[in-house]
């Protein structure tokens, strides 16, 4: 067959565009399953140490600002809404609205990271970053073991740090999507990248949905 | 938008979730965040974490089914998503089984192995390999 009678987006090892899109979705879900194991390891470690040292966990969590944690949770949930709407706009082939939803997602993601690093800066000022400079200034529980509270903060920074890293990667992916959307690369017939990057972003949101109560609401 | 995409728009069997559905799920998610916060002020001892995790699980299910379109995905994709959860459960279960059963048995005496004989140097001086002890020296 010398003439090509299919969409320019169809790769030749697929029979149809629908099969190609389903394969992309399947691939992203398999990657997300590995990400579940990645974060799951840290959650398991957190669970063991929380079970062993509950008083230190209560103490460590009490020095985290629940207000900003809640605001960040709402920011991220809103970004998941804009992501879902971006997929809808792509399905409808509405380029201008798609661009707006992608921009909104990026703004919310950046806001989350801004708040997060503001929190980290606060922790630096309060000398609560694990290391030689760690010092618990005003413990609510005077009998708590400071080393164990430092362990809590080790988990806090590792887990939220890896989460923030995933957010930064997500922002990069959305910047890439935004460029493509502005160039008119996505349409009702082809918007697979918008969908699968959306899956990644929703996963990162789910990780935060678990991080918030486990770290801030002990 | 080229000719192909226009035709495919008519042919596609892709399920479109409406913005209204997304907004409803979003509002429910926000309500659940409020519920999580409210639950922290109810003293329930060890059950507080159970309630918080249960609410987080409900939020996850909503995000996965609706925002991530799993409800309308082909069964193979649903299976892979489920498999991820299953593997996490296996990892968590075995990890906790280890830690929670520590100290259930008495520590074992270290086994004394017979000294290895070097066939190339049977009667001669053999330097024993350094061995890291499994248990701390008393």
Could you please describe the fold and organization of this structure?
The complex is a heterodimer of chains A (218) and B (138). Chain A is mainly α and 218 residues long. Chain A is 76% helix and 0% strand. Chain A has helices at residues 17-52, 54-62, 66-92, 95-125, 146-182, 192-216. The longest helix of chain A is centred in the last third of the chain and has 37 residues, at 146-182. Chain A is elongated. Chain B is mainly alpha-helical and 138 residues long. Chain B has four helices and no strands. Chain B has helices spanning 3-11, 19-40, 47-67, 75-100. Chain B is elongated. The model of chain B has no long low-confidence stretch (mean pLDDT 82).
Short recap of the structure:
The complex is a heterodimer of chains A (218) and B (138). With 218 residues, chain A is mainly α.
Topology:
The complex is a heterodimer of chains A (218) and B (138).
Chain A: H1 17-52, H2 54-62, H3 66-92, H4 95-125, H5 146-182, H6 192-216
Helix pairs in contact in A: 1-2, 1-5, 1-6, 2-5, 3-4, 3-6, 4-5, 5-6
Chain B: H1 3-11, H2 19-40, H3 47-67, H4 75-100
Helix pairs in contact in B: 2-3
